Amino acid sequence: MMDMENKTGNIAVVGMGPGRESMMTDEALQALDSADVIVGYTVYLDLLGERFAGKEFLSTPMKQETERCRLAFEEAAKGKSVAMVCSGDAGIYGMASLMFEMKEELGADGTGIRVIPGITAASSGAAALGAPLNHDFCVISLSDLLTPWELIEKRLRAAAAGDFAIAIYNPSSKKRHDYLQKACDILLETAEPERACGYVRSIGRDGEEYHTCTLRELRDAEVDMFTTVFVGNSQSRIIDGRLVTPRGYKL
Ligand code: SAH
User: How far is the CA of 169 from the centre of ligand 1 (A)?
Assistant: First the structure.
C-alpha cells in the first residue's frame, strides 16, 4: 500500500486553491499542518495567513521556480518534511512537473513526492461566472515565457475549430499587455463577434469581480495577471447576467 503520510524527508506539492483558506482541501491543510518547512512564492505564502504563522517559510521571487524546487529538495535532504505550495492546482501551470524533473536531475531517489490537488482557477472562476465550462473545454495559457507564441496561436485556432469553450490563463502581464487582443483576433477568424465570454479577477480573494461580454468586447477588455478569461462555445449564452454553456438537456 502507498504511504500517504507526508513523512519526514518527503515533499508534498500542495495546490492551495485560488486564495482563501475555505477553498483549500482538508488534505492540503493537513499537509501544511504537518510540514516542518513551507516553500513557495512570497505572494502565496502571504495568503496562507495566521494559521501557519509558526512555520518555517522559505521563498524565492517569481521566475526563480527552479531555485525554489532545488531549495525544497535541499530541505528534504536534511530530513525535514517539506510542503511546496502553488496557487490553484499544483499540476496545472504549477510546480508539480518541475519537481519530478528536478528529482530525476538531482538523483534524489530517497525523496518521495506527493501531489495534493487544489481547485484550479478554471474551476473556481467558472463557478463565480456561472457555468461556462459545462461541456467540452480546454485550457490555454497566453504566457510565452516557456511556450513559443506560434504554438499558442496554433492551440487557439484548434480550440476554436473544435468549438471548445476555453479557459484562458495568464491573459496579460506588464510586458504582454496586448496578448488577449491578439488571442481574440485569432478566435475571431472563425468565431462570431457576439460569442458569449467573460472574465473573473481575484477569484477567492478580496475584491473578486466577474464580467460577462461578447468576444468583440473581450478583445478590448482590461485584464491583468490575476484574471482568468472564459470564451464560450457556439452554444454559450448569458443567462441572468451569468455565462452559461448548456450541456444539451431539453427543457
Ligand atoms: N496553478 C494555478 C495557475 C497558475 S498560472 C491554478 O491552477 O489556478 C497563473 C494564472 O492563473 C493567472 O495569470 C490567472 O490567469 C490564473 N489565476 C490563478 N489564480 C487566480 C485567481 N485567484 N484569480 C484569477 N485568476 C487566477
Answer: 6
Class for domain 10-116, per CATH? alpha beta
The CATH 3.40.1010.10 domain(s) of the chain lie at 10-116
**Shortest-distance Cα residue to atom 11 of ligand 1:** 169
Give the homologous superfamily in CATH for domain 121-244.
Answer: Tetrapyrrole methylase, C-terminal domain (3.30.950.10)
Please write the tens of the pLDDT for every residue from 93-128: 999 999 999 999 999 999 999 999 999 999 999 999
d(CA 190, CA 207): 34
DSSP string, 107-141: T-TT--EEEE----HHHHHHHHHEETTSSSEEEEE
User: What ligand 1 atom has the least distance to the C-alpha of 204?
Assistant: 22
Q: What are the tens digits of pLDDT across the range 193-250?
A: 999 999 999 999 999 999 999 999 999 999 999 999 999 999 999 999 999 999 999 9
SS3 content of the chain, % helix, strand, coil (to 5): 30, 25, 45
Cα 102 to ligand 1 centroid, rounded to whole Å: 23
The CATH 3.30.950.10 domain(s) of the chain lie at: 121-244
